[in-house]
Amino acid sequence: MSDNTTNKNPEQSFMVVPAFGHCQELRLGVSGWQNAMARIKEAQHLVPSNYSNLEFVFQEAWREARNNSIRVGDAIKKAMQNVEEIKADILLTEIPKILETMPKNTNNADFRKAIFTKNVDYQKANEHLEKLQAMLEHFESHMKIMENTSRFLKKQMDYYIRSGVSTGITMR
Fold this sequence. Notes:
Blueprint: E1 2-4, E2 14-17, E3 26-29, H1 31-44, H2 51-101, H3 108-118, H4 120-163
Antiparallel strand pairs: 1-2, 2-3
């Protein structure tokens, strides 16, 4: 995974996940998230005049994270398919050949596990799957942060409205 800003839009930042097996390259936008994180301190010192703009920024970052999590979720399904296909190849071709040379009283389960552990393609497929699963958790945490920030902004605005600060009207 790498951060890449060499795209048609120079202001658009991407996280790039290389292609692997059935998984095509993923270019996941992160500029909305970067913008939201750059402005998150403004939420702490909210003034009513910038509420709608901040809320838009955080909602845009949430939508971006949601889109990324959907795309990564789809890639996880394909990565699981990669792992299963490699596993099937090992079970059907490599293991029978190796077991022919082994004594009959050896523990087949231990040898199978060892063969899977040593298979480079299987390791790479599992590593790719684990990275995608970590990315999914990462984007889901982005969504949670934006949800909590938006909830905080709404509570702050509710406070301003109830106290009359946002309208300049004071109760007499």
